[in-house]
Amino acid sequence: MTIQGYNLVCLDRSEAVHRGVRVYLNELIPFTILDDFTVKTDGLEVLWIKIRPTRLPRGYSDIILSLVYHRSIAINSIMLDYLTGCWSDIESKHPNIGIIVLGDLNQLNSRLKSNFDLK
Predict the structure, then answer these.
(1) 31: CB partners within 8 A, 6+ apart
(2) How far are the Cα atoms of 20, 33, 34, 85, 116 from residue 78, in angstroms, in the given order?
């Protein structure tokens, strides 16, 4: 479905009825999909997008959106290891970056909050 004035960015599933992870971004916001980090395998569906809105909080150069779907049957430790590795790599490659995590984390929500300084 298209929405006038917005770009649809998605990581669709090819084998399932459901669509995968997706987000609509205002067409005025420049964005880049971070293919090096994006993954779609059994239990891991994560799309990484770097956006550069015209107005950012002081001290931030860009924002990275992490669109996550963690299936309830997936292994928690695999997703935690993957996210931890990605966040470390992103912070080293993109200093002064803000990271926003969006999506369905199922039972990972409390574990991520306790392992990272999430707000």
Answers:
(1) 7, 9, 25, 49, 50, 51, 52
(2) 19, 22, 20, 11, 16
Per-residue pLDDT of the chain (119 residues; tens, 9 = 90+): 789 999 998 876 666 656 678 889 999 999 999 888 877 776 678 889 999 988 888 888 899 998 888 777 778 888 888 888 888 888 888 888 888 888 877 667 666 666 666 66
Distance, in Å, from the CA atom of 25 to the CA atom of 56, rounded to the nearest integer, reads 16
List residues bridging with 12 in a β-sheet. 20
Sign of the C-alpha dihedral computed for residues 99, 84, 21 and 34 taken in this order:
positive
Q: How many CA atoms lie within 13 A of 6 on its CB side?
A: 11
Residues near 13 by Cβ (< 8 Å), separated by ≥ 6? 19, 20, 40, 45
